[in-house]
């Protein structure tokens, strides 16, 4: 299998966690005899320092020619006084727009070993494994007209969706549900909003093409409660842009740390993969960053851009094992717990590498029998 991966490590802890994620991808390539190439490219604050632009043309062109883009994070306090379109974060927004992905995937998983890290009780989070599919290019964030009339002291935005926009993201959600536990929850506000009524009617109609998937609809307000009460009831959750923005952050609480959350944006010209967290300038360069969000993001690259499901699952299993063995970066360590072993970013990366190698060895041994 050949895969050209553009690596946009960015700023702060971005390069630290991306380095560990790339090492894991290199290991998968070596074990499986795959041909993965990695092209490092500039984005964010480091790109401003070196080229004057947060997204240099060379980065954009090379990203568009790759099979997948793996980002770290962007953002550096020294650029805080610049106007928004000149700051590192502008590079991120520009590359997201240029790659054109409309389906943002965010898993929310309760790792048994981290059950004490979530503010929710373990018996609530136990068994939760949710995949959010958030529509990313439509709805209130992009709808026209939009304006703030300061004189009239009035502002407005427009929540708008076409049937075609709903169909394309809903198909992705149904297909993902088919590969998981075959349950899809579509979230809307159809009791109040016409745009949600179109959303619900379209998703209901599409469900006929996926008879093996059980579809349910939830209103966004009750969904916000159900997610915190019985998260294990959900498998794939499909939402429009604004509702997904809010609910996927809420569901991050189930996992218990920002450093653990991966994401993928698919459906456009090239898929974009990035951990959910930012550049964390407060811990950058100290070896304290949790690389697991980035490593789990690498697993998503294999699943969604290379169809290497077994390898993606092996990475996720390796992460679960390392956590179960008690290894913790500072963000997920709980004070005074003697069974935990505090590790640095690179140590955590090595532990996952080791667990992955063991699991792949076992798989190969089973094939040989
Ligand atoms: P942040 O996600 O960088 O950090 C929030 C808190 O979580 C910090 O205390 C940080 O130390 C901690 N944290 C984050 N990731 C961690 C990890 N992997 N391991 C351990 N701890 C981790 O958010 P912020 O502080 O609001 O923003 C910092 C900069 O990042 C800003 O410039 C912001 O614009 C940018 N940002 C970028 C992205 C992105 O690139 N996708 C996302 C969010 C914020």
Quick take:
A hairpin with a 4-residue loop joins strand 11 (264-266) and strand 12. This protein starts with a strand and ends with a helix. The chain is an alpha/beta fold and 369 residues long.
Can you describe what's shown?
This protein is an alpha/beta fold and 369 residues long. Helices cover 43% and strands 18% of the residues. α1 runs parallel beside α12, α8 packs parallel to α9 and α10 packs antiparallel against α11. It is globular. The structure holds nicotinamide-adenine-dinucleotide.
Query: Are any ligands bound, and if so which?
Result: nicotinamide-adenine-dinucleotide
> What fraction of the residues are assigned to beta strands by DSSP?
15-25%
- Going by helix content, strand content and strand pairing, the class is alpha/beta
Biggest β-sheet: count, sense, barrel? 10 strands, mixed
Helix proportion of residues, in percent? 40-55%
Task: Name the poorly predicted regions.
Answer: none
The overall pLDDT, averaged over residues, is: 96
Order the strands across the largest sheet as they lie in space: 2-1-3-12-11-4-5-10-8-9
Number of helical elements: 12
Q: How many β-strand runs?
A: 14
How would the blueprint of this fold be written?
Layout: E1 2-10, H1 14-32, E2 35-40, H2 45-51, H3 57-64, E3 68-73, H4 88-99, E4 103-109, H5 122-125, E5 129-135, E6 147-149, E7 154-156, H6 163-179, E8 183-188, H7 194-206, E9 214-219, H8 220-229, E10 236-239, H9 241-255, E11 264-266, E12 271-273, H10 292-305, H11 309-324, E13 327-328, E14 341-342, H12 345-368
Parallel strand pairs: 1-2, 1-3, 3-12, 5-10, 8-9, 8-10, 13-14
Antiparallel strand pairs: 4-5, 4-11, 6-7, 11-12
The chain binds nicotinamide-adenine-dinucleotide (NAD).
Nicotinamide-adenine-dinucleotide is lined by residues 13, 17, 73-75, 89, 92, 258-259, 274, 277-283, 289-290, 293, 331.
């Amino acid at each position: 299998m050949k895969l050209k991966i553009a690596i946009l490590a960015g700023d702060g802890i971005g390069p630290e966690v991306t380095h560990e994620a790339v090492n894991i991808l290199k290991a998968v390539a070596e074990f499986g005899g795959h041909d993965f190439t990695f092209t490092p490219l500039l984005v964010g604050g480091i790109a401003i320092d070196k080229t004057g632009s947060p997204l240099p043309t060379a980065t954009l062109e090379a990203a568009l020619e790759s099979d997948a883009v793996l980002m770290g994070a962007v953002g550096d306090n020294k650029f805080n006084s610049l106007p928004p379109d000149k700051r590192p974060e502008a590079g991120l927004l520009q590359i997201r727009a240029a790659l054109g992905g409309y389906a943002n995937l965010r898993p929310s998983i309760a790792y048994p070993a981290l059950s004490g890290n979530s503010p929710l009780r373990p018996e609530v989070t136990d068994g939760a494994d949710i995949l959010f599919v958030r529509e990313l290019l439509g709805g209130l964030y992009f709808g026209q007209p939009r304006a703030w009339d300061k004189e009239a002291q009035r502002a407005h935005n427009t929540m708008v969706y076409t049937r075609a926009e709903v169909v394309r993201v809903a198909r992705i959600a149904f297909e993902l549900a088919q590969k998981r536990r075959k349950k899809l929850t579509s979230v809307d506000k159809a009791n109040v909003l016409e745009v949600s009524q179109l959303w619900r009617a379209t998703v209901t109609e599409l469900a006929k093409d996926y008879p093996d998937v059980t579809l349910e609809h939830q209103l966004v307000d009750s969904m916000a409660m159900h997610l915190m009460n019985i998260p294990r009831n959900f498998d794939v959750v499909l939402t429009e842009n604004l509702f997904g923005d809010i609910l996927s952050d809420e569901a991050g609480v189930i996992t218990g740390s920002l450093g653990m959350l991966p994401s993928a944006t698919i459906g456009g010209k090239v898929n974009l993969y990035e951990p959910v967290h930012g550049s964390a300038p407060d811990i950058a360069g100290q070896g304290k960053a949790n690389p697991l969000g980035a490593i789990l993001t690498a697993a998503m690259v294999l699943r969604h851009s290379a169809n290497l499901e077994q390898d993606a699952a092996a990475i996720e299993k390796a992460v679960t094992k390392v956590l179960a063995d008690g290894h913790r970066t500072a963000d997920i360590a709980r004070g005074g717990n003697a069974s935990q072993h505090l590790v640095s970013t690179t140590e955590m990366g090595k532990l996952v590498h080791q667990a992955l190698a063991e699991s792949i060895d076992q798989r190969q041994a089973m094939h040989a029998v």
